[in-house]
Amino acid sequence: MEHPTERAVLKMLVAALMVFLGAYVYFVSASVLNVIARKEALAQTATLSSTLSLLERDYYTAGAAVTPSEGERFGLAPVSDTQYVYRPGTIGAARVVSNGI
Amino acid sequence: MRSKLILRARILSGAFIFVAALLMAKLYFVQVINGEQYQNEAKEQYLVSARNQVNDRGGIFFTKRDGSLGDAAVMQTGWRVTVIPKDIGDPEEVFSELSAETTIDRDRFFERVAKMSERNEEIAYRVSDTAAAAIRAKDIPGLGLVRDKWRYYPGGELAAHVIGFVGFQGDKRVGVYGLEQLFETTLVRNSSGLYVNPFAEIFTNIGGVLASDPKEYEGNLITTIEPTVETRLEDTLDGIMEAYRSKFVGGIIMDPKTGAIRAMGIRPAFDLNTYNLVSDSSIYSNSLVEGIYEMGSIMKPLTVAAGIDAGAIVPSTTYEDRGCIKKSGETICNYDHKARGRVSMQEVLNQSLNLGASFAVDTMGHDVFASYVRRFGLGERTGVDLPSEAIGSIRALDGRSDRDFASAGFGQAISMSAIAMTRALASLANGGVLPSPHVTSAIRLESGIVRTVAPEPGRRVLKEETAQTVTNMLVKTFDDALLGGVLKQEHYSIAAKTGTAQIAIPEGGGYYTDRYLHSFFGYFPAHDPKFIVFLFTLEPKGVEFASASLARPFADIAKFLINYYEIPPDR
């Protein structure tokens, strides 16, 4: 003997099941994609970070090799007599109309 | 009957659905969450032992002059090469093929291959991706490649004592020195990072943003160390070490206003990537923070500052200098035992007169002097964010010995760490306020948000005008007295002072007569200082005074910093 509302309830349950199943599949897929993307991103980050650290190593080594005597090799010479300019105030203090100070 | 059948069918369907859901969940964990691990097991039939397994770890960064970051400590990825000895053909041929692509330890290779076992044996570590690809292409039977990860320090020796390294504590890999040790909680990573509960991640990120102490959250350290300045400091220390064959040399470059340490170096040093090759482990200690020393005459500016601040003396105050005096039954002399007659406090700094410092202490009173020494923080930790900071020893000031007070006035009988002395001297450059020395400026959380680490605000220890007066005195000392004034910079005012201290015999009974500690400090531009530089060297050979050993290295560093940071002239 079937209850009068059983068919309706069954339909609702089936619909709910479908919705939940769909949601489950969606969230699992999203999670899978997220994990895959994260894995990919982490792998790429690790590779980039490794490459970058080796470049940094080279940079530090090259930077340490730059000395005043290295400068002479490039034809640079120390400035013997530095001249400094003293300019008081700001542009507002300029007596000229234009900003060509 | 029919309804019973329907019920049974439903129960059965429910059971099927439940089991299917369970299987799907299991499949998800097997294929997605742990997929990589199973893949490794299946492909290589080899897993790295727990002891050799290195987890990810947060990075440590230098801050360059323009604010960009440079790697100080990172995780490096590569490969391990393994062989199954039984499957290897001609070992000699395999060895030469591998050697063409990467460095292989010959002894290790043949020792492992000789085992003739069916188990994987590791023959090379830290192999680069390029070399691994080349090896893989050769398709050598019995050869395998597994992922390898290790902590890498691109700077090698650069700021080694500040950064520290990751080593073993029992079977666990942890930071054991420097920032690696102090910020273990921040740097350590316990998860693989592949699967993260999104809700947990959101709450962790919010927690990290709102937390009063971001150090408790996973992140990366951003330091105040500037790599070019650090390199220059360490080059200078190398020069001092080579010239005077010292026991060790150390230096600190700090912003005296904020306490941000731009460089901190010690020689002898070690390469962080090969720390295990060092025979003497005492080399790992950061003596600038962990050691205490009698600093000598660089204490005199603090003594004079205390006297001026207390109203006991002024720069023009004079005293009768007799070369040597008796204190508590013992003789105390100037460094050359010579009398100067009537001289001013300015001359006390210019000529570094011990008796002048003793006079200043007596004039202000012992208790007042002791209270200033405590205020300068010479008997306490500075709170610098480096491990194992030593506390200064100023016990001599608890007694009533006139000799101890006189000695303390010129930097003997009391000892302190280099960082504590630098902080105290920085108060002269910072208008009388003690800065808070620090190496870490910020923590970049895993979410990418950067949390600034604010140092404790410093306390005032001198009146602003006292700091100004002593700065003027120190500028005169540098311009006119130090090495006859040859280091004077026409357009830059530099405040500086040397120190040469006798070294106490550890067993007691006085001081060595042939061993000295040389120290030097200076800040510039003197009236709006950007940097304070502190140098010291223990037991230099063939040189008696710090003016001869450290003044020129200091001047070189000062010129470099002025040029590098384009500091405008101040006179």
What does this molecule look like?
The complex is a heterodimer of chains A (101) and B (571). Chain A has 101 residues and is mostly helical. Chain A has one domain. Chain A is 65% helix and 0% strand. Chain A has two helices and no strands. Chain A has helices spanning 6-65, 68-73. Chain A is rod-shaped and about 110 Å long. The N and C termini of chain A lie far apart (102 Å). Chain B is an alpha+beta fold. Chain B folds into two domains: 76-150, Penicillin-binding protein 2a (Domain 2), CATH 3.90.1310.10; 227-564, DD-peptidase/beta-lactamase superfamily (Beta-lactamase), CATH 3.40.710.10. Chain B has helices spanning 2-33, 35-44, 91-99, 106-113, 129-138, 160-163, 178-182, 184-187, 198-210, 227-244, 287-290, 300-309, 345-350, 354-364, 366-375, 402-409, 418-429, 464-481, 546-549, 551-564, and strands at 60-63, 69-83, 121-127, 143-152, 166-169, 172-175, 219-223, 248-254, 261-267, 318-321, 324-327, 330-333, 341-344, 440-445, 450-452, 495-504, 511-524, 531-538. In chain B, the strands form five sheets. In chain B, strands 1, 2, 3, 4, 7, 14 and 15 form a seven-stranded mixed beta sheet that branches. In chain B, strand 1 and strand 2 (69-83) form a beta hairpin. In chain B, helix 10 (227-244) packs antiparallel against helix 20 (551-564), helix 12 (300-309) packs across helix 15 and helix 12 (300-309) packs antiparallel against helix 18. In chain B, 46% of the residues are buried. The model of chain B has no long low-confidence stretch (mean pLDDT 91). Chain A binds chain B through residues 1-2, 28, 31-32, 34-36, 38-39, 42, 46-47, 49-50, 52-54, 56-57, 59-60, 63-64, 67, 82, 84, and chain B through 3, 24, 28, 32-33, 36, 59, 70-71, 74-78, 129, 149, 152, 154-156, 158, 193-196, 198, 227-228, 231, 235, 491, 569.
